[in-house]
Amino acid sequence: MGNSGKTYRVCILGCRGRGTAAGRAYHAHPRTEVVGLCDLKSDLLATLGDDLGVAARYTDLDQMISELRPEIVAIPTGTEFHYELSMRVLEYGVNIDVEKPICVDLVQADTVIKTAAHKGVRTAVHHQGRVGASMKAVSRAVKEGRIGRLRHVSASGKGYYGGYGLMNIGTHLINYILEIAGPCNRVSASALTNGKPIGPEDVLPSPSGMGTIAGEHITAYLEFEGNVTASLSQHRFPVVDSAAYAVEVFGTEGRLFWKSDGAWILPSPHFVPEMEQWEPLPLDIPDQFDPSKSAEADFAFAGEFAACLDDAREHTCSGIEGRHVLEIMMGIFESAAYGMPVPLPQIRRDHPLLRWLDELNHDSPPPMPRGYVEWLAAEDERIGRA
Ligand SMILES: NC(=O)c1ccc[n+]([C@@H]2O[C@H](COP(=O)([O-])OP(=O)(O)OC[C@H]3O[C@@H](n4cnc5c(N)ncnc54)[C@H](O)[C@@H]3O)[C@@H](O)[C@H]2O)c1
């Protein structure tokens, strides 16, 4: 508790969309201060630097860290750079906030976690919704027993191509499920491409540099302690629809519903038409939060980082939790490929889809465009749907 009240010095490494969100939140939070920015592109540095009033702008991350000695470096860059940049920053013995997903495979994630432990610093993965007001309200209601005994959690993505949706949006949804249900023991999944179970030819490089993926429609089933289960659907829709991004929690006496901007309770476990009425749960928003300055969950994430450094404990969205999320995502791909449930944590840490191709003596995945729209067009052509 010795550091309570201290203001932590933060650098932002990557100043595009997510760097702007992180920079604004660490700048707005009274317990954190943005002391420096780094990007390879000077126009992005100028825009964010002027917005936040930060004069210390760098194109070389080593120079920034050596000169400014920050306590936290945020790494909001494309996912293919998370591993390399996390390792470079950790070498300086600095705490990191890396965007989600933590890395593209478990070998990388294990190395990041081990290096952070060796250096005595914390890793946090930017799954900000878990510490946002609506997930806190849902989690509190479960812990207070307001829906009786927890039975099942159901979560849906936004309708991106399944494997990409899993790495991009499923990473947040699984992190919410972990908050509600605790660590996952076992996963099973089906992955369909063009209506058929995936074959090795359906293993592809992900859009947006998120590693290797497969499956247009993924449905996963997760098992937890106490007979609790969860289902996660990452199904491709004709048009991506953020309204589908939701979590429903089923208890023996009621149900809860989570959206990024609200939380509701139904004080009945079953459908009873005459009493079907969802009630909003109160949201606990900090007094210092100003919606014109940052997003609520990013602000909460910054405050949680200060609190966890004060108390020398892990962030609620720690790298260890982020790695477990990745274990579940890799378990989903493994189960879909091999047609078997996967106990967690898995012993094999290499990417299960690449292992599958290797064991089948199948060629490596073909190159694909990085941008999602171009990627989808190439995929639709590959499966004869263009
Ligand atoms: N948490 C969320 O809600 C959320 C939402 C969307 C995206 N994301 C995640 O954010 C990440 C992408 O964020 P983005 O779209 O802002 O990233 P981006 O890759 O478009 O931009 C990253 C910036 O970092 C800079 N950069 C890269 N390497 C650098 C280096 N070595 N030194 C200095 N600068 C460097 C680039 O020039 C670029 O401007 C992905 O991991 C994605 O999954 C998270």
In the CATH hierarchy, what is the architecture of the largest domain at level 2?
Answer: 2-Layer Sandwich
What is the gyration radius calculated from CA atoms? 21 Å
Structural class: alpha/beta
Number of strands: 18
CATH class of the largest domain: Alpha Beta
Summed over residues and divided by their number, the pLDDT gives a mean of 97
Description:
By secondary structure, the protein is α/β, with parallel strands linked by helices. The N and C termini lie far apart (about 60 Å). Helices cover about 35% and strands about 20% of the residues. It is built from eleven helices and 18 strands. The chain has helices at about 15-30, 40-50, 60-70, 80-90, 105-120, 135-145, 160-180, 295-310, 320-340, 350-360, 370-380; strands at about 10-15, 30-40, 55-60, 70-75, 95-100, 125, 150-155, 185-195, 195, 205, 210-215, 215-225, 230-235, 245-250, 255-260, 260-265, 280, 340-345. It is globular, with a radius of gyration of 21 Å. Strands 7, 8, 9, 12, 13, 14, 15, 16, 17 and 18 form a ten-stranded mixed sheet that branches. A six-stranded parallel sheet has the order 3-2-1-4-5-6, with helices on both faces. The model has no long low-confidence stretch (mean pLDDT about 95). It binds nicotinamide-adenine-dinucleotide.
Key structural traits:
6-stranded parallel β-sheet; 386 residues; binds nicotinamide-adenine-dinucleotide; Rossmann fold; Dihydrodipicolinate Reductase, domain 2; alpha/beta
